[in-house]
Amino acid sequence: MHKELTAKGKATRNRIIEGAAAVLREKDVSVATLDDVMARTRTSKSQLFHYFPEGKDELLLAVAHHEADQVLEDQQPYLGCLDSWEAWQRWRDQVVKRYAEQGEECPLGSLVLHLGRSTPGARDVVVTLMRQWQESLATGIRALQTAGQLPAELDVEHRAAALLAGIQGGVLILQSTGRADHLRAALDQGIGDLRRAAAV
Amino acid sequence: MHKELTAKGKATRNRIIEGAAAVLREKDVSVATLDDVMARTRTSKSQLFHYFPEGKDELLLAVAHHEADQVLEDQQPYLGCLDSWEAWQRWRDQVVKRYAEQGEECPLGSLVLHLGRSTPGARDVVVTLMRQWQESLATGIRALQTAGQLPAELDVEHRAAALLAGIQGGVLILQSTGRADHLRAALDQGIGDLRRAAAV
DNA sequence: AAAAAAATGGACTTGCAAGTCCAGTATCCG
DNA sequence: CGGATACTGGACTTGCAAGTCCATTTTTTT
């Protein structure tokens, strides 16, 4: 990585990444072209290769990083304070809303799939995202334990993992079928079972 | 659809579909080429376009259909008779085993994603698959109700939907991170919560 | 068995998108 | 102020993969 990036350079680089992200929200990665990115960001070929010498894949990887950060930032306000049942409900609503609005597109998903094993580091992006996400959920469950709302012997990681899987699957189905039922069901069932565990 | 397909023609057509499916298990759809399919199936360009006049997309859609059928066929022996807790456990083990072996690849997923909205019918493949899958799960839950193992007032569809979401998410995470923890957690949690509902 | 229809082989065209090159302009730094 | 270094523009090359075409062989049909 060459660090010789002036302020203007950084700005341009960011403009490219965000422009590329926008393009990828409109069309799939397999049909999105560098010319699309150029058109949207008013840059030239040489700039793209100046900032991303390895070419398209390097750019896409940067976009993936950007998008992954976005996912957590978006829900941080809710995900960061899951210390009451009401907070969990608010978070649930926000997740459903966010993905219902996003609808078809999952730039991150198709991005990682497309980069796949060919690009080292692509997998890391999603691995890291999943770990952080699950960690936040686990923290939330522990907060409920601390508040005495849940028994201490609950297997926190196990429940967090199952919940995360439900979310991912719900979003996947939402994206491939257009129906949000499964996402809602997974969240409600997951939270509901948690509440039932409290009653024991 | 032209029905003028002789026995030999049908055979060749199937050979192409299965060969293409095999290719797609090795490489992503975006890098898989018609020449790959030709090489593997010992066919020529003109044969591909003879059997799939619309070109690559039509072939890919046919492969998607084929793969979707496969998914259900594979687990039918287990999925078809979920009438005891032991049967559920056997099914669970088989799902985990199957996807752990399959590992990285999910031809169907990337296929549908790639065809996306451009190809009408691509979405239908996955919609149908999900509906049938969920239906089988629901049937299994109802079987337990009939056997008196579960209360009659349980919301069957809701639980089936949540379980399906958990599976899909678990598989997704397995594929993008290489870890099967989430798939196992989702299944165990889903079945476990079902059993706990029995105790009430 | 001969005409018709279907199946096959493979060379050729076409189009597009990634990546290269070099020349020109702005910006930084001593 | 002046050299160096970073930034930008756009024409050009290259390679590959989808799709076309027609000649040839095999099978079906009457």
Residue windows where pLDDT falls under 50 for at least 5 positions of chain A: none
CATH architecture of the largest domain in chain A: Orthogonal Bundle
Main sheet attributes: strand count, strand direction, barrel closure of chain A: none
Q: List the domain count of chain A as a whole number.
A: 2
How would you classify the quaternary structure? Answer: homodimer
Q: CATH first level of the largest domain in chain A: which class?
A: Mainly Alpha
Compute the average pLDDT of chain A. 95
Q: Most extensive chain contact?
A: A-B, 42 and 42 residues
Category by helix and strand content of chain A:
mainly alpha
Q: How many E-type strands of chain A?
A: 0
Keywords (chains A, B): DNA-binding, Transcription, Transcription regulation
InterPro entries (chains A, B): Homeodomain-like_sf, HTH_TetR, Tet_transcr_reg_TetR-rel_C_sf, TetR_C
Pfam families (chains A, B): TetR_C_13, TetR_N
Organism (chains A, B): Streptomyces iranensis
Write the layout of secondary structure elements.
2 copies of one chain form a homodimer.
Chain A: H1 7-26, H2 34-41, H3 45-51, H4 56-79, H5 85-102, H6 107-115, H7 122-146, H8 156-177, H9 181-199
Chain B binds a DNA duplex (30 and 30 nucleotides) through helix 1 and helix 3.
Can you describe this structure in just a few lines?
With 200 residues, chain A is mainly alpha-helical. Helix content of chain A is 76%, strand content 0%.
Structure commentary:
- The N and C termini of chain A lie far apart (55 Å).
- The mean pLDDT of chain A is 95.
- Chain A is mainly α.
- In chain A, helix 1 packs across helix 2 (34-41), helix 1 crosses helix 4 and helix 4 crosses helix 6.
- Chain A folds into 2 domains: 7-53, Arc Repressor Mutant, subunit A; 63-198, Orthogonal Bundle (Tetracycline Repressor, domain 2), CATH 1.10.357.
- The longest helix of chain A is centred in the last third of the chain and has 25 residues, at 122-146.
- Chain A has helices at residues 7-26, 34-41, 45-51, 56-79, 85-102, 107-115, 122-146, 156-177, 181-199.
- Chains A and B meet through helix 6, helix 7, helix 8 and helix 9 of A and helix 6, helix 7, helix 8 and helix 9 of B.
- The structure holds a DNA duplex (30 and 30 nucleotides).
